[in-house]
């Protein structure tokens, strides 16, 4: 205590008039905030341990609990804000790099919220999705530059491998290890139900989930954890992970405490050993090396699966994407700087990379300017929060979106941002069996399917309003977007006009 | 500030009509002008035009460039450039008659040209691609000059005004064609530029279009990857380029092109029993998703030797087809067909996405 | 017949089912009023050890031993459901001895009590099932 002391960030407010001392809160808190005082027959709380995950709040049967932000504040200072000062205290204590989880929480611009969508009035009709067909199916993959015909003039219907999605959304990479078996099972079964894909992340594919192969993207990242021939064969597509929006330029680190049992076997590393993915792929120091890996993976899988190259949105993203589009890759996935993570150094998460909206707009434009947009499909992620974000992303030029944080929220995540602790009370970012079982994958799957169906309805409503009855007519249709409160430069990069223009 | 055409996107509603003789019999422009009269209210006087096929038999081997010039200087300037690319075998003013309803006309000229062989060899381009690029270059880079027709043995005639007046202005009764298309425009904006009237053409492809497509920017941004420049920001322009790309560059058949731009719904494709047809439709939608046109449209595509009429897949714009003897008539309204042929038979309203293709007998054009 | 089934794989051991059961059978509309400061007499109980837990309640056996051994005729079946007529129960608790599953218990006033699938109270469907946060208790036809 003393100089090391930091007053707890949250306060547990218990309404004693309502509390029936059922002790559900106590049993549900893996952080051991709550306890029962047998002598006085009341519940006690130790706020120093609370991460505000809201599990106790959600399960309290009498609504006797709430968690609020502590009002014990340092003297106000616009420059030296509370968080800034406390981070210094923490580092002065530990000498370590600060770690955080999930996406960048800083008040950075969210361009989605500064873009408005068009609707038809008078000159052409809006379309009612309840009465007319409204199509959301997309195919991801390389498109041929020239249609080939046989000697009888019939089209030769041969295509590079394509991914068929019932709607332009996929669940993005989250490894088994960083999230639980039940979280993975929820994602896999939901992807199957929905006719979309989920992504293994760099943790291998649990043997139980090989049966969901056609709805699975298997990832190959710099640590090559869990990669073997059957794994590559198992998926519908292979993703080479070059970077991640939450932590561009660095690798990954799954602590040994999470490398237990099946996680260890699936990753093909010993139990208890830290899984450290290098910052770069040590066989890719340049674009031509990427091409080699792309073709190695194609060769290994008989040219039957599209190869995705996932990169973080960084300053030079348009040039990087142009390089990737010429590397033989079929799909480029771009992850914006608000993307989530199971753990990342705080400084990197909060300061490195660029917003996905700007990255997408400049990549789509560059690929079109160079006439190579057809070489690749573009998938974007990094905080796609709702159906409107998806519609805006598609209209800016994306073929599909990756979502992860939204999917975890559907599974119960309350964004407490302490995944790195491994004590996820919602059974998502943990490997502790008693916590993992809190996520019933049957419920998880249903909730993911519900969320996606709800978004699909909303996408259709928005499209119908614009008089568009197929998602492909929305892709790159920037005339359907207008900026609000954006500078000329921002509008220029986004390739849209200002509202009122 | 008033934007001129090309600086701003202009949606418009319209009237269209067309007639073709399957035997290649020639018709003067009078009937097609008549057909536009009952559809007067579908235009608002801000654009009318016609395309005629088979009108220059004596110059059938040469590209007929119809051009607008703002002034004499831009014409001289442009002619200089033309001579660098083409051999000009004939150049003349397009004859017009002064009428009170058509004013502010630019200088309207036509050239019959042949690409310079040496240039073709140098650039390793086929003739049509060469002409296309030259037209794009003039239209984007030469202020005050605009090519509005560039096919062989065909031509378009357009102006700001009501279509029936435009026909009189251009003396269309003096031209004989085996196929005519016509257009009356109702833009929801008032740029009043002659080049913005329809038909819109590239090489011998001409489009008259009624509708406002919601897929415009998706289509435009895709097609511009292949050297086309959508300078006018109109639907008709982008549809013309799409048809040129699909038919000439990708060598698709008319039916195939129709199932790209008015693609059948996935559910329709899934229900097809003919496996090869199903495979083909799926292939076309997968390969050309960005060329699907959504929103209301009815178009008539003219080309040497035929016409194709097509509605959007939901049939959000009216379009009827009728026949009489060797002739096929197409129009926004049946009344227009009756003006051309009171006894027209087999009047049908084609389903959304169902292409009506009419071709002139081989050797008859 | 629809019965309450338990899947221990998803049981969190949170004991919410017990509280929901007691509340549903309290006849009151507010849980705080019904349960605060009171001893709980639920008709379902969570059992278990270490990391395994599961809820136990009446299985509504096809051939219920409790009914057979009831000396007063209080326990009876009603369309497959095992019910208790508390006015007839003399509190001998033979049924508790007879039930191989430990599904019966003693109520506040000394008579036997058991799960009647919440069909006798205002809940209308088993409250334990409705309130289970992880679908570890289900009410279904099997």
UniProtKB/TrEMBL annotation, chain A:
The protein's name in its UniProt record: glutamate synthase (NADPH)
Gene Ontology terms describing biological process: glutamate biosynthetic process
MF annotations from Gene Ontology: 4 iron, 4 sulfur cluster binding; glutamate synthase (NADPH) activity; metal ion binding
PANTHER family: ARCHAEAL-TYPE GLUTAMATE SYNTHASE [NADPH]
Enzyme Commission number(s): 1.4.1.13
Organism: Massiliimalia timonensis
Catalytic activity: 2 L-glutamate + NADP(+) = L-glutamine + 2-oxoglutarate + NADPH + H(+)
Keyword field contains Ion transport: no
Domain of life: Bacteria
The family this protein is said to belong to: Belongs to the glutamate synthase family.
Residue ranges occupied by any 4Fe-4S ferredoxin-type domain in the UniProt entry: 10-39, 40-70
PROSITE patterns, A to Z: 4FE4S_FER_1, 4FE4S_FER_2
Coiled coil: none
Residues given in the record as [4Fe-4S] cluster 1 binding sites: 19, 22, 25, 60
CDD domains with a match to the protein in the record: GltS_FMN (cd02808)
Binding site for [4Fe-4S] cluster 2: 29, 50, 53, 56
Keywords on record: 4Fe-4S, Amino-acid biosynthesis, Glutamate biosynthesis, Iron, Iron-sulfur, Metal-binding, Oxidoreductase
Enzyme's top EC category: oxidoreductase
Gene3D superfamilies listed in its UniProt record: 3.30.70.20, Aldolase class I
Phylogenetic classification of the source organism: Bacteria, Bacillati, Bacillota, Clostridia, Eubacteriales
UniProtKB/TrEMBL annotation, chain B:
Positions of transmembrane segments: 287-310
Pfam families: GATase_2
Domain Glutamine amidotransferase type-2: 14-361
Single GO molecular function: transferase activity
Positions annotated as active site in the UniProt record: 14
UniProt KW keywords: Glutamine amidotransferase, Membrane, Transferase, Transmembrane, Transmembrane helix
PANTHER family: AMIDOPHOSPHORIBOSYLTRANSFERASE
Protein name: Glutamine amidotransferase type-2 domain-containing protein
Natural source organism: Massiliimalia timonensis
